[in-house]
Amino acid sequence: MLGPSRQLPSVGAQARVVHFGGGFERGTVLAVHEDGRRLEVRVEDGEVLEFVLSPATARFVSASSAHGPRLELLGRDA
Fold it and tell me: What is the pTM assigned to this prediction?
């Protein structure tokens, strides 16, 4: 039986927010909703951002803007 092809999100997992233009910011997953398809992430400055899993690309993208940042999951101890 095959497992997931991507890392499953979990509360406490470390993440990297990739901003348009190439900037990066560290974050921590605060909440996981909709069976892992919607995440709340607290970034370095304390702001909480929401990301959704894009069905077209299978990447986490900003829930508020199509041109917003995207999220890369790094794992619990990254």
Answer: 0.86
Alpha carbon distance 66, 37 (integer Å)? 16
Q: Are 47 and 40 in contact (CB under 8 A)?
A: no
The Cα–Cα gap between 72 and 18 comes to: 7
Tens-place pLDDT, residues 1-49: 665 566 789 999 999 999 988 899 999 999 999 999 999 999 999 999 9
Q: Give the span between the Cα atoms of 19 and 43, in whole angstroms.
A: 12
Rounded CA gap, 78 and 65, in Å? 27
What residue ranges do the domains of the chain occupy? 14-48+60-75
Two tokens, residue 51: 């990301």
Q: In angstroms, rounded to a whole number, what is the distance separating the alpha carbons of residues 70 and 46?
A: 17
- Is the pLDDT at 77 greater than 60? The verdict is no
